[in-house]
Design brief:
Elements lengths: L6 E3 L21 H11 L3 E5 H4 L8 H18 L2 E6 L18 H21 L3 E5 L4 E2 L7 H18 L4 E5 L8 E2 L4 H9 L7 E6 H6 L4 H10 L3 E6 L18 H13 L9 E3 L14 H19 L2 H9 L3 H13 L1
Parallel strand pairs: 1-2, 1-10, 2-3, 4-6, 6-8, 8-9, 9-10
Antiparallel strand pairs: 5-7
Helix pairs in contact: 3-4, 4-5, 8-9, 9-10
Length: 343
């Protein structure tokens, strides 16, 4: 057990509480106000979408984008923070309504590639080599509208162009089985890793596993993490929780299933996650009912739960566990873990 854990979250995780069924309920905080909160909450790194760092980037030249990102890097330095990754936000532009990389319109596909290149420029300016791809609209509402073989090949071609654009950049695929699309082409960790093997430099293609996304696929997040660790492809995680197979809830880590959270912490620690510079990212949303003045507790609470579960995992008698496993007394093992979790 030799994991090294440092924590990040994205500015979107401090939010106004709007959802598809209701308006905002809290006042907005500026990006600079959010930066002031990171260290106070126990976090050392920032996750970025490209337009978190450079708003309205579609209206700027490449050099203007780099200049704006350089200003944000200075703000990070002033706060003692680092950028963990940058992700192209390609699910809100009208040119990505039918997907970006997999769009049926070649002009839209070209836009997606150029936007991805600008994202890499921003990452370089912010001092990170990690690009996260949430392939949000790379799917379909109706299967007959796209050819899944062609769509997969187009995603590979897009990643290859990103890898060629910068020989240092690493691409981290964040799989999700659904939402906003009915059917996505890269729904699970296994799909993402296999896709990376088709790319021109597979050593620079890894995965970001989000707890809720694995649950939505009917899978256990810790098993998905173990699978990625076996391939040395787990380059970041998005920890949260999920209550059932409904929309992506991004609940505070451990708030639904503490044992499921425990096993995520344990697999990361057991296999020395963080020793190569990986971060623990939290992608959690405040409850919509939370008042503005206490609307960051979901972040500090998630970090507290992680660290407490880490203590519990490290307090377990590994020899006692090994004896139960050797004797195939799994009922006793089950009770042993439960006792540790309930104290």
């Amino acid at each position: 057990m030799a994991g090294i854990f440092k924590f990040t979250f994205g500015p979107w995780n401090i939010h106004e509480g709007a959802d598809p069924f209701g308006p905002t309920v809290r006042k907005s905080k500026s990006f600079r106000e959010k930066l002031d909160l990171y260290k106070k909450l126990g976090f050392d790194g920032v996750q970025f979408h490209d337009d978190d760092a450079v708003p309205d980037m579609n209206d700027l030249t490449p050099q203007q984008i780099i200049s704006k990102a350089t200003e944000i890097k200075k703000a990070l330095d002033d706060h003692g923070l680092a950028a963990e990754f940058v992700a192209p936000r390609m699910w809100e532009d009208e040119r990505t309504i039918d997907g970006g990389y997999t769009s049926n319109d070649p002009n839209c596909r070209n836009y997606a590639i150029e936007r991805s290149k600008r994202t890499i420029d921003i990452a370089n300016a912010l001092g990170t080599d990690l690009i996260v791809l949430w392939l949000a609209r790379e799917g379909t509402y109706i299967r007959e509208s796209k050819d899944s073989k062609v769509a997969t090949e187009r995603i590979v071609q897009a990643i290859d162009q990103m890898l060629a654009y910068d020989p240092k950049v690493r691409i981290c695929i964040e799989p999700k089985p659904n939402e906003p699309m009915d059917h996505t082409y890269i729904p699970t960790t296994g799909h993402a890793i296999a896709l990376g093997l088709l790319c021109s430099d597979s050593k620079r293609v890894g995965v970001n596993i989000e707890s809720a996304h694995a649950i939505l696929a009917g899978l256990d997040p810790s098993d998905e993490m173990g699978y990625a660790l076996a391939f040395n492809k787990l380059w970041t995680v998005h920890l949260n929780d999920q209550n059932g197979l409904k929309f992506d809830q991004d609940k505070s880590f451990g708030s639904v299933d503490i044992r499921r959270a425990f096993n995520q912490v344990r697999i990361l620690d057991k296999h020395n996650y963080g020793q190569n510079g990986e971060w623990v990212g939290l992608d959690v949303k405040a409850m919509r009912t939370q008042k503005l003045e206490v609307s960051t507790k979901h972040l500090s609470n998630s970090r507290t739960v992680f660290l407490r579960l880490l203590e519990i995992s490290r307090s377990i008698d590994e020899n006692a566990m090994a004896k139960m496993i050797d004797e195939r007394d799994y009922e006793e093992l089950d009770l042993y873990i439960i006792k540790h979790l309930i104290g």
